[in-house]
Specification:
Distance between the termini of chain A: 44 Å
Number of strands of chain B: 5
Number of domains of chain B: 1
Structural class of chain B: alpha/beta
CATH topology of the largest domain in chain A: Heat Shock Protein 90
Order of helices and strands of chain A: EHEEHEHEHEHHEHEEHEEHHEE
Radius of gyration of chain A: 32 Å
CATH architecture of chain B: 3-Layer(aba) Sandwich
Structural class of chain A: alpha/beta
Strand content of chain B: 15-25%
Number of strands of chain A: 13
CATH class of chain B: Alpha Beta
Helix content of chain B: 40-55%
CATH superfamily of the largest domain in chain A: Histidine kinase-like ATPase, C-terminal domain
Oligomer: heterodimer
Helix content of chain A: 40-55%
């Protein structure tokens, strides 16, 4: 049972008690929430009393008589309406002129209930107001969640960008202090390592740009019939130099020319990510096997490697932003931790899916399925 | 001129390891590095060290604390310095000096990252002199 607080403000005792009785007995359900809703009620006979009860009792809904002695309903409304307030107010009035209606709405009233009314009218109005209240709360919750996620993303990002800068600064300080003497060659490894960290940072920034472009929808998608085969071959060419460093062979198991409605840039980002992972997390002299096929209106692409593989625990964290699998075997492998997040977002654009099979020390196989884009 | 002091330096950040090792060696300390708690524990069974410098967050969130505890339970007199970037990243502060902290942090001192090397050298001198 979800209990909401309703404050009834009316200078007529009969009205207060009547409304209170109706609401105390009223339970109903709404589509958006599982529990039934009922009310706990409080009453106020004057505007002053109402203002005080709003402050101290924090009602969810206020039924506010327009005509009150001393301070009027409109003044009460003005007094209690704040930016943070989530309370929904229904004005109850016998003198509903257009003018009063406009001023009340301007003051933040949600609805009107004209006197005299039947209990059924009261229930109907209160139900409508409750629905509005709950929707507004959900929107607010979602926005807060969005803000929290964005903040978390930014703080992790700041950390990820600071780490390489600190490392590079440390090396430069050592070089500038000539900690190991004046022989320049002694510092070669440090210069080399600084360059590796700079490249890592550059990759992170470009991944980040890809990610934000996809997320904001800013990147214009160019969907047209495209040869998936050519996209994959281009990605293989891009990855060849990296593969050669570890003497890894890349095998393409399908030579058919398959066409698919897609954005060739997106397919290349997907393939570049999958193939470079398959090389980075592979063993020396390993294999990368790529296969693809068209099934009805979908394309399925798989990339498997003979690398270090992942435990089930590690697989669960795979698609989290900035998450990189950290263990003895992944030592020294550079990455932004954004590749698979980007991949996931692109695959979502095709209503597609990604599946992962992996066995520690045996290798990993990623399979992605893309469906014909709707637009 | 060697100072005859051998330091075990433990951190999973290889850049930090390289840099701190070079800095310490320039001050004539002998330095052995380990990239994980397990690797450090291995080294501890084989060799003798005069002092350990340990990063708190390694493979597990508190691997450094666990390693410090491991060292101190074997040899209470071996000086342990813990380091971490948690202070600069989260604002969380601790100094291993209050009684409450001493009860669960088994270390002689805490030095926040980014490390000021002068402070590190002073602490090492102080802890190894005693």
């Amino acid at each position: 049972m979800h209990v909401l607080k309703a404050l009834i403000v009316d200078d007529e005792k009969g009205m207060r008690l009547g409304m209170q009785r109706t609401l105390n007995r009223y339970t109903f359900s709404l589509d958006d929430i599982e529990e039934d809703i009922k009310f706990e009620t409080e009453t106020a006979a004057t505007g002053e009393d109402a203002v005080e009860k709003v402050a101290n009792w924090s009602p969810d809904i206020m039924l506010l008589d327009y005509k009150l002695p001393n301070i009027s309903g409109l003044e009460v409304l003005e007094e209690v309406t704040t930016e943070e307030s989530e309370m929904v107010t229904v004005m109850v009035t016998a003198y509903a002129s257009i003018d009063t209606a406009i001023s009340a709405i301007k003051q933040g009233a949600f609805d009107f209930l004209a006197k005299p009314f039947e209990p059924a009218d009261l229930r109907k109005t209160v139900k409508k107001a409750t629905k509005n209240l709950i929707l507004a709360r959900e929107v607010r919750k979602l926005e807060e969640e969005k803000k929290r996620v964005r903040f978390e993303f930014l703080s992790v990002l700041a950390h990820e960008l600071k780490a390489p800068i600190n490392a590079i600064k440390g090396y430069l300080n050592i070089i500038s202090d000539r900690v190991m003497g004046n022989d320049v060659e002694k510092y070669d490894d440090m210069v080399e390592r600084s360059l590796v960290r700079i490249d890592g940072m550059k990759k992170m920034i470009s991944d980040l740009l890809d990610l934000t472009r996809i997320e904001s929808g800013e990147k214009k998608r160019q969907l047209k019939k495209t040869s998936v085969t050519n996209c994959i071959k281009r990605s293989i060419d891009t990855a060849e130099p990296l593969a050669r460093e570890k003497n890894i062979t890349i095998n393409l198991h399908n030579e058919d020319d398959i066409e698919f409605m897609c954005d060739s840039g997106e397919i290349e980002i997907i393939m570049n990510n999958l193939i470079s992972n398959a090389i980075k997390y592979n063993k020396d002299d390993g294999q990368v096997d790529i296969d693809f096929d068209k099934k009805d209106d979908a394309v399925e692409i798989s990339v498997s490697d003979t690398g270090i593989g992942m435990s089930e625990e590690e697989q669960k964290k795979l698609f989290d932003e900035f998450t990189r699998i950290k263990n003895k075997k992944t030592r020294g492998i550079e990455g932004s931790g954004l590749g698979l997040s980007i991949l996931q977002k692109i695959v979502n654009l095709y209503d597609g899916k990604i599946s992962v099979e992996s066995e520690p020390d045996q290798g990993t196989k990623f399979t992605i399925t893309l469906y014909k884009s709707a637009d | 001129m060697s100072k005859d002091i051998t330091i075990l330096l433990v951190d999973d950040d290889i850049d930090f390891l390289t840099q701190t090792k070079v800095r310490l060696e320039a001050e004539d300390f002998t330095v052995v590095t380990a990239e994980s708690k397990n690797e450090a524990e291995d080294l501890l069974t084989k060799d003798e060290f005069d002092l350990a410098i340990i990063d708190i967050m390694m493979e597990d969130e508190d691997a450094g604390f666990a390693l410090a505890y491991h060292i101190k339970s074997k040899d209470e007199s071996m000086p342990v310095i813990i380091t971490s970037a948690v202070t600069s990243e989260t604002g969380m502060e601790f100094d291993a000096q209050t009684d409450e902290e001493k009860s669960w942090i088994k270390a002689d001192t805490f030095i926040p990252k980014p490390i000021r090397y002068e402070q590190l050298f002073t602490e090492i001198e102080r802890l190894t002199r005693e």
